[in-house]
Amino acid sequence: MKSAFRAPSNIALVKYWGKYGVQLPSNPSISFTLDACATETTLELTETPGIRVALDGVDTPSFVPKVAQFVERAATRHPWLKDYGLNVQTHNSFPHSSGIASSASGMSALALCVVDLARQLGHEVADPKQEASILARLGSGSACRSVFGGLVVWGETHSIPGSSQEFGVEYPHPVHDVFRGYRDVVALVDVGQKAVSSTTGHQLMEQHPFRSQRFAQAHDHLASLGPILASGDLEAFMELVELEALTLHGLMMSSSPSYILMRPNTLRIIEAIRGFRRETGTPISFTLDAGANVHILFPEHAEQSALQFVEEQVKPWCKDGRAIADRVGQGPVSLLQ
Ligand code: DP6
After folding, report:
1. pLDDT at residue 191 is higher than 80
2. Residues 328 and 187: beta-carbon distance below 8 Å
3. Which atom of ligand 1 is nearest to the CA of 101?
4. From the CA of 75, how far away is ligand 1's center (Å)?
5. Sign of CA dihedral 218, 224, 228, 231
6. Residue 103 CA: which ligand 1 atom is closest?
7. Pocket test for ligand 1, best of 11, 16, 32, 247 (most atoms within 8 A of CB)
8. How does pLDDT run across 281-336, given as a tens digit for each residue?
9. Residue 190 CB less than 6 A away from ligand 1
């Protein structure tokens, strides 16, 4: 018996940074689900016990502990998982060496397979997408947002009805057309292993001197995004999204111990983006995840000038001149139907 899903990565606009309990977020977050950056995973139930993981067709034992931890947690809701051996075959659309984290797309794809298999085995699942989001969260927090397409909110907050600590929900309010198919070009600055992992970063928020202000700010940012997304106010959108990115890295720089994940070329690219925006009025902005790469965001209508700018003024600062063009996508798809 097997299941297979393709699940995309996502990029947060308001960042999840800090958690407690079993993968519950200290603050609400919202992200764009992407399209091109995705993971394809097949999960097969076998009679031979144990977990086997193959990446791009090659047996990869180093992935087993992460999958085993996910299965341990998922089995609290799906005890039948313990009755089988598991064969996982996985493939990322983005190069392994890109420094793009595969945990959001990977855990989302795996969680969707588990829920599908539960249903094939005849277990009742009241809300399969919600269940997949809960399971994905147990694997990696941000993965719970990749179960849906478009804009997805995770974490309970007053401005988003139906929002939950346990799973992601599709953004429920009106969204202006300018945000449809919004572009994200990922400028690859540093493709190596991160100096400090996200797990450690989340932990450092537990004692962070600015934690309560930060968590309150994230709620405020979610609420202020409402009118911005409805009206298509790109100036306000870019301002808020860049503030979130720099706040995330500001929190890292003001953690104890302090650390810096941006590299000199991260700052060069940020400067270039702000300079180009000032000079040309092109609505181009940036966000950052927990690494040195820069996500360059712009609406579809600005694509021509934005891509020319990336070619001329961003790629020279990228590792081997590499950037990955992506856009907001529709969410995961089953690969077996
Ligand atoms: C900076 O979801 O990777 O990308 O829950 O420990 O797996 P774990 O962390 P992870 O953290 C992502 C943090 C972020 C912001 C975000 O995606 O919201």
Report:
1. no
2. no
3. 3
4. 22
5. positive
6. 3
7. 16
8. 999 999 999 999 999 999 999 999 999 999 999 999 999 999 999 999 999 999 99
9. no
Residue 298 near residue 183, CB atoms below 8 Å: yes
Instruction: Kindly state the average pLDDT of the residues 100-123.
Output: 94
Candidate from 137, 142, 194, 199 with most ligand 1 atoms within 8 A of CB, to mutate: 142
d(CA 292, ligand 1 centre) in Å:
14
Q: Is the peptide bond before 257 cis (omega within 30 degrees of 0)?
A: yes
Distance between CA atoms of residues 138 and 143, nearest Å: 9
Which of ligand 1's atoms lies nearest the C-alpha of 140?
7
- Dihedral sign, Cα of residue 222, residue 252, residue 298, residue 91: negative
Q: What is the pLDDT of residue 3?
A: 98
| Mean pLDDT across 53-69 | 95
127: left (phi over 0), alpha (psi -120 to 50) or beta: beta
| 295 vs 327: CA distance, rounded Å | 11
Task: Read off the DSSP letter of residue 328.
Answer: B
Whole-number Å distance, alpha carbon 105 to ligand 1 midpoint, is 12
Residue 110 DSSP SS3: helix
Q: How far apart are CA 23 and CA 220, in angstroms?
A: 22
- Closest C-alpha among 3, 17, 5 to residue 290: 17
Place of tokens 């600005």: 302
pLDDT at 97: 65
Q: Is 140 near ligand 1, meaning CB less than 6 Å away?
A: yes
